[in-house]
Amino acid sequence: MNWLSNLCVVTALWAFDSTPAQGQLAGHGGPVRAIAISSDGNSALSGGFDTSAIRWSLKTESAEQVLRFHSDAVNAVAFLKDGRMATAGADALIAIWTPGREQPDQVFEGHHAPIVSLAVSPDGTKLATASWDHTVGVWSLIGGASQILKGHAQNVNGVAFTADGRSLVSVGYDRELRIWPMVAATPDVALLPSPLNAVAVAPDGEIITGGGDGKVRFLTSSGHETGEILAGSTPIVALAMSTDGTLIAATEIGGGVSVIDRKARSIVQSLATQGAPVWAVAFLPDAATLLTGGADGRIRRWNAQTGDPVGSSPQAAQSDPLAAYAGDRGAEVFRACVACHTLSAEEPQRAGPTLDGLYGRRIASLPGYRFSDALTKMDIVWTPETVARLFELGPNTYTPGTKMPEQRIGSVEDRKALTDFLGRATLGRR
User: Which residues form a coiled coil (predicted)?
Assistant: First the structure.
């Protein structure tokens, strides 16, 4: 269930839905993977598949700072107790930021695969990470020793501290929920019926998980199941809890967002999303407002009590960048690429490098974009023939080590239409 590797392809299917947008914050050049809210409710922090994180003003609905450091998708973000921020991503790095500074204050290394979840301890001294290297990291924010906790047999997808900070809860694809004491001791382990993608802990100690079977499960602080609710027909990929612990928001890969009354174990609202995957969700401190982020790169605001979208920002309107090429077969083939690539260097950066001036450029030579080491060692110059070969064989075969999702174009005619289109659309832009 490696959904991240197919994210660009999934996004492309939804990037230009004709349904009127109710977007609030538009700035990422690809799917929004994570959202966090500051304790005062004035700021949001988002992480995207475009390798950036953005700090937003929720009062003005504008970006205050774009954080660029990671070389791959930013999968997890958090506000720290001292006002700083944490970002973590598919490059297995954790960066600590001070607002306004262009570079991280500190970078933690130790994981060997994508990091997909962050949690801050109640006292603000520790940061926990969940990684696809099957481990949990606990990082000291005050100069103490860090730990790597081993025990999961598969990808770890979620972490959350208990309210008293004495334990850390982790969940993974191995169906295990582990409760790790923060002092040296053996963790309690609960085996659940489904792979687990997300976890949250209520103020009273109750543990909530979201699984691959679309169910939200409730457990005691010691890991014993007390109930479940079917919240979606596709895997639950993110959970959020209101600050007072009364409501849970569960998002699914199929696009559904359910607001659940925790005590009643019932769905009180289902948000009217556009059906695209929703990867991120967070409550504002008022416990009545939600932010969601998903495959179309927009962050939306919702009334959690009524299920209605809240307002609409002028930034929400997003035109089709291929509108000028209506009826062009090559443009239609390229539409599957537009979620990750732009045709012009003037457009905001997306997950992949711009294709501006593509033909005649050596692979992995575009200034300002961080390519994988494997690509920088290749001797390929992009031409209509090499681009056609890329999509005939597939990126993993033609350019092994690429971060590009695997996709092929089987039709010779479609490959020719695409390469001709790229020649026209990027001609003379170098």
Answer: none
What is the predicted pLDDT for the residue at 12?
A: 39
Q: Which residues of 60-92 are buried (b: 16+ CB within 10 A; e: fewer)?
A: ebebebebbbbbbbbbbbbbbeeebbbbbbbbb
Residue 369's nearest CA partner among 352, 383, 381, 355 is 352
Separation of alpha carbons 377 and 237, rounded Å:
36
pLDDT digits (tens, 9 = 90+) for 255-293: 889 999 999 999 999 987 766 788 999 999 999 999 999
Q: Which residues does residue 298 pair with via DSSP β-bridges, in sequence order?
A: 26
DSSP symbol at 189:
E
Question: Alpha-carbon distance 75 to 67, whole Å?
Answer: 13
Q: Which residues are CB-contacts of 134 (< 8 A; sequence separation ≥ 6)?
A: 150, 152, 153, 154, 155, 156, 172
Euclidean distance between CA atoms 211 and 196, whole angstroms: 4
Q: Which residues, at least 6 apart from 92, have a Cβ–Cβ distance to it below 8 Å?
A: 109, 111, 112, 113, 114, 115, 131, 133
Domains of the chain by start residue, with CATH:
19-316 (2.130.10.10), 323-425 (1.10.760.10)
Residues 124 and 166: beta-carbon distance below 8 Å: no
| Helix/strand number for the chain, H first, E second | 6, 28
Q: Are 119 and 131 in contact (CB under 8 A)?
A: no
Q: How much is the average pLDDT of 106-131?
A: 97
With 0-12 CB in 10 A as exposed, 13-18 as middle and 19+ as buried, what is 219? buried
CA distance 257 to 300: 12
DSSP 324-383: GGTT-HHHHHHTTTTTT--SSTTSPP-SSPP-TT-TTPBTT--TT----HHHHT---B--
pTM (2 d.p.): 0.74
Task: Give tens-digit pLDDT for 319-361.
Answer: 567 888 888 999 888 876 776 788 988 876 666 788 999 999 9
Backbone dihedral region of 287: left (phi > 0), alpha (psi from -120 to 50 degrees) or beta?
left
Q: Which two tokens stand for residue 121?
A: 């301890």
The Cα 257–Cα 231 span in angstroms is 8
Task: Report the interhelical angle of 412-425 vs 384-393 (nearest 10°).
Answer: 140
For the segment 195-254, what is each residue's pLDDT rounded down to a tens digit? 999 999 999 999 999 999 999 999 999 999 999 999 999 999 999 999 999 999 999 988
Strand partners for 140? 126
pLDDT tens per residue across span 373-420:
889 999 999 999 999 999 999 888 999 888 676 678 889 999 999 999
